[in-house]
């Protein structure tokens, strides 16, 4: 074998992307088989008297009526009335109506866990990116000749043992594999071998490329760039001058170049940051100021990770080493930096007059990849869930992500309960 050119290693990898079809709806059908084949909407806010809420997902039969994820529930009900309402309303057609079910995260998590076990049984390296989606590096487990049978084996096993349907894409890199898993949904299985990548990507609309939102898509279309093929044929430096580094990424992805490695890092259970004072301070204003900086950093990290949070908390360490944690749970998952700051300030007010040696901010109860819905969720009130003041702090999962800002700190060890 000849010497490799730098960057060509990615050609040698085999990456699979698995994404369950209409996942929450498929879960509902597991415990209510009568819903199979029916238009089914999973969401909130559709009961009489409710007006606020969004569609989490819709079965493919419901999508045929124009119902889709993140749509306002009122709009979904217009396109697809509830069966039980249609049955008593002579102006509505029962045949053109559907079933609505509320979101039950705990159940979907348990189904997701079963799927994960199967994925891990088929690949040494699995990166879970959301409740129904994961990348697998299967370079060691299969070859291009066998990739289709290999992926079908995973698909069949998920369907047989869990009862939900996965669409799977296989390609030499993550971004192409993701597009491949989406290409023939539902029940899709698409293998794109290295030499077929450019041809496969050419007709893909620019908005289907990772990192292209509606605004970028419009800008590209204004320039006559409508597909990945057009993008791949554009001038790299022109894209860079228009979009900065992101332009370079877009150009690469459109050409099927993506050197990201599938890493098995799981999803963090929480995101937190903390900061110590060189000398314990009794000035609540100073503590608040520090905490708000941490709050901004944590909210920003959540946005970068596409994470929504249901719980916002603080940690306050008072001399000698008492760790006090307070947290507030929200009615639904949000991505709202301003709210984080407000809740942090409210929780801190209790420590008026206390000397503080360290302060921390944490968001937890995370949900990934559903940011579009956050804006539709009303935030109406909150309840306190954690009110500990022992030196044990809160428990957290092994995957919690946190960082300690020791720049001005005392560098004290063993105060890591927040991590
Ligand atoms: P997706 O994989 O994006 O959607 P899906 O599985 O319902 O449908 P398909 O993959 O066949 O296109 O998201 C997985 C789950 O995440 C989805 O079932 C419900 C939830 N979700 C939301 O709650 N809000 C959203 O806006 C989106 C997109 C998903
Ligand atoms: Mg899905």
Description:
There is one protein chain. The chain is α+β, with helices and mostly antiparallel strands and 419 residues long. It folds into 3 domains: 12-20 and 108-254, Reverse transcriptase/Diguanylate cyclase domain (Alpha-Beta Plaits); 24-104, MutS, DNA mismatch repair protein, domain I, CATH 3.40.1170; 270-405, DNA polymerase, Y-family, little finger domain (Dna Ligase, domain 1), CATH 3.30.1490.100. It is built from 15 helices and 14 strands. The protein has helices at 23-31, 60-63, 73-79, 83-86, 105-122, 147-161, 174-183, 197-201, 214-222, 228-233, 236-243, 245-254, 284-304, 337-348, 371-374; strands at residues 15-20, 40-43, 55-58, 99-102, 125-130, 133-137, 166-171, 189-191, 270-281, 307-318, 322-334, 356-368, 383-386, 401-405. The strands form 3 sheets. The protein has a 6-stranded mixed beta sheet, covered by helices on one side. A 5-stranded mixed beta sheet has the order 5-6-1-7-8. A 3-stranded mixed beta sheet has the order 3-2-4. Helix 7 links the parallel strand 7 (166-171) and strand 8 (189-191). It is globular and about 65 Å long. It starts with 14 loop residues before the first strand and ends in a 14-residue tail after the last strand. Residues 1-11, 372-400 and 405-419 have low confidence and may be disordered. Thymidine-5'-triphosphate binds at residues 19-24, 56-57, 69-70, 131-133, 185-186, 370, 372-373. Magnesium ion binds at residues 19-20, 23, 132.
